[in-house]
Amino acid sequence: MERVPPVLLPDLEYDVPPGGLSIGEASRLTGVGIEALRYYEREGLVLDPAARDAGGRRRYGADDLRWIAGLVMLRETGMSIADIRAMADLSRIAGTEAERLVLLEGHRHRVLDELARTQGHLLAIERKIAAYREVVGTEGQPHEDHPSG
To answer: Is 83 exposed, middle or buried (0-12, 13-18, 19+ CB in 10 A)?
Structure first.
């Protein structure tokens, strides 16, 4: 996986044996379902298909799992499958760092916009909590028009 410098991929919090991990073990350690791992491979979201053992079963190495961990992070921050596919496609080609940077900067911008919206919503929730605490603290009893359930 020389196409992506190791410093750009998440560290693993577990050891991977030289022969790799089964799909079940990879699923358990990454938190990604078995079918999702197969989907990621089928849709070209991983750099390379997982190696196979003599019986044809997938074996995931440390580089595979680091890439998957990065993929999970991007998904959890809202990156689209199309953009992850574009990142994987670019990562297979040497010299595409500038294009990858543009893709990540665009994603960062969307994450920051979403974070600002979420912070605004949190502020509104905090104001509501403060208002309810004032009402509860002042009166200590539900309002007459509020069912006490």
So the answer is: middle
For the record, the structure tokens of 55 come out as 């019986």
Q: Tally the residues of the chain.
A: 149
Q: What is the mean pLDDT of residues 86-106?
A: 94
Q: Provide the 10 A C-beta neighbour count for residue 114.
A: 12
Average pLDDT of every residue of the chain = 88
CA distances from 43 to 36, 47, 77, 85 (A): 10, 11, 20, 8
Domain ranges of the chain: 6-94, 104-149
- Stated pTM of the model: 0.76
**Tokens (6 digits) for 13:** 């919090």
Yes or no: is domain 6-94 CATH 3.30.70.580?
A: no
**In angstroms, what CA-CA distances link 53 with 15, 22, 62, 136?**
19, 9, 16, 64
Taking only Cα atoms into account, the Rg of the chain, rounded to an integer number of angstroms, comes to: 23
Owner of token pair 């196979």: 52
Q: For 13, which DSSP code?
A: S
Q: Which two tokens stand for residue 32?
A: 């990604």
